[in-house]
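Late entry, written up from scratch paper. The run itself happened at the end of the previous shift, but nothing got recorded in the book at the time, so transcribing now.
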Amino acid sequence: MNTPASATILSPQLRDPAWMSRVFWLCAALVLLAPALVLTEFRPWTLFEPETLKSTRRFLSDFFPPKIEAEFLLLVARECWRTVAIATAGMALALLVAIPLTLISTSALSVSALPGRMHALPFIVRQGVRWLLILLRSVPELVWALVFVRVVGLGPTAGVLAIALTYGGMLGKVYGEILESDESHATNTLLRNGAGRLQAFFYGLLPQSAAELTSYTVYRWECAIRSSAVLGFVGAGGLGQQMDNSMKMFQGGEVATMLIVFMLLVGLADYASAWLRRTLA
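Output as recorded:
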């Protein structure tokens, strides 16, 4: 029996057989989201109240015109360079943390796992390292920065150490997942024939994972530049600390200039990271 053309157009089952499940999950998401919005007191309509709009206009008017004096621009350029230096130094230390922990926690490099089941001691060591990586990345870099500001004082050192610990945990986690998701036949063959773990890594796992590892590392460096600016608000140096000082002094023009410069800095970091990924891929 032929189905009329009008029924084909009007019937949801014929247009999309999964429409009922889509509607169900959409309603379920709304039911779960509603209490969260109530709990967080999410009331976006308050942004359009007359008193709020008046305060917003007064706040934004303080940002114009941006300050463009030569001496201040030189200060901003110096703090931008310091921000990039904090991110780069933090990433370098994060790699020193992540690479050894990744090699220890990756089961594909375990000699004891070759027969099919890893021995108890290597298993415990690897699980301990993985929990260490969880600890490092579960604490936000902003919290680490607050801790290190109390320990080493105000300045870039606290920002470098904060990025090193948090990003070390992130890199170690993702590096391990990348290495274990690749084909391990070559690595197992090398280990079975007497090669060391480092040899199996460099000649078995690394060649097929190098592009993905490099891409993720460069992406994290770009994220570290943004994080280093935020860390400055808790005294960890860089452009963020200077911006915080200007905001406390109600110097809106200085803040506007630094925001513009920071957006340009993030844009340049994005282009630089894209170029590095294309070059190293």
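The first helix runs from residue 5 to 10.
(Scratch paper discarded after transcription.)
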